[in-house]
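Thread: Modeling a multi-component assembly for a lab meeting

Hi all, long-time lurker, first post. My supervisor asked me to bring a structural picture of a complex we are working on to next week's group meeting, and I have zero experience with this. I have the sequence lines for every component (230 residues in total). Could someone generate the structure of the whole assembly? Inputs are pasted exactly as I received them:
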Amino acid sequence: QVQLVQSGAEVKKPGSSVKVSCKASGGIFINSGVSWVRQAPEQGLEWMGGIVPLFGSATYSKKFQGRVTITTDESTGTVYMEVSSLRSEDTAVYYCAREEEAPYTFDIWGQGTRVTVSS
Amino acid sequence: QSALTQPASVSGSPGQSITISCIGTSSDVGGYNYVSWYQQYSGKAPKLMIFAVSNRPSGVSSRFSGSKSGNTASLTISGLQAEDEADYYCSSYASSNPPYVFGTGTKVTVL
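Re: Modeling a multi-component assembly
Sure thing. I ran the full set together rather than chain by chain. Output:
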């Protein structure tokens, strides 16, 4: 059964950075993209950016452009997302999800990584 | 790009049918047949229930159905069951950045 497995919870200080990983099993990144979606406490879902591991180029929501970096390590089937200059508003659960182009949907989700930003 | 508009809550009795609306614009919901619906239990990851407006992934109950008219998409749950109690989010592909926009979310309560 294909799965996306994310790294564990993180607690960070304001102004620091966090790097979250998302590892695929079953080769599910072939020709597929991976997006990152976050959910602040008691809030809705928000698309942050995505990457197609086969091609290596990432796209970002303009809200996060310049502060979020998405990369991939094809040798291990892992996608990473780094958020810099963390602030308290970045406290959220971060999900990776497999993105199927046309129909532009997210059919497989990771379990989520809770990131807490607190001084 | 603003979030798509959903009712905050919808409730129904077991066996009844309920419908959740998702209102967008011609730049997202109205412009593409790429509306998805996700079910999310508290503390869990979202699960895809409907894609491309009205298609169900393998394993999703036929009690869930989707439709679209103009800038409004809808999710209908028929034969409501206790296990349907969860939050539901719509999503659409969009013509501008960000290319994906989510709805505000709807809490479904089974009375």
